[in-house]
Amino acid sequence: MTDLNRGIMKFRGADSSLAIVLSALLVLGPIALLVVWAIGAAYPSV
After folding, report:
1. pTM of the model
2. CA–CA distance from 33 to each of 26, 27, 40 (Å)?
3. Per residue in 1-45, pLDDT tens?
4. Which of 3, 36, 45, 46 is deepest in the core (most CB within 10 A)?
5. What is the mean pLDDT of the chain?
6. With contact defined as beta carbons under 8 Å apart, do 2 and 15 qualify?
7. Residue 15 dihedral angles phi and psi, to the nearest 5°
8. Are 32 and 22 spatial neighbours (Cβ–Cβ below 8 Å)?
9. Are 13 and 1 in contact (CB under 8 A)?
10. Is 7 left (phi over 0), alpha (psi -120 to 50) or beta?
11. C-beta atoms surrounding 4 within 10 Å
């Protein structure tokens, strides 16, 4: 058992590449959207 299969992700395949990519997209996607929104609000196009 790898270290990624411990903690809150206690299911078979928690350390698979697909699970890691999906969880990264769930975390980084909204952050990227907030950054894009903040830049658009700070520098509105003319």
Report:
1. 0.62
2. 11, 11, 10
3. 556 555 666 677 777 888 889 989 999 999 999 999 999 999 987
4. 36
5. 83
6. yes
7. -100, 15
8. no
9. no
10. left
11. 12
**Helices (DSSP H) in 1-46: which residue ranges?**
17-42
Count how many residues are written for the chain: 46
Cβ atoms of residues 15 and 25 within 8 Å? no
CA distance 21 to 40: 27
Amino acid at 10: K
Q: What are phi and psi of 45, to 5 degrees?
A: -75, 150
Q: Alpha carbon 19 to chain centroid distance?
A: 11
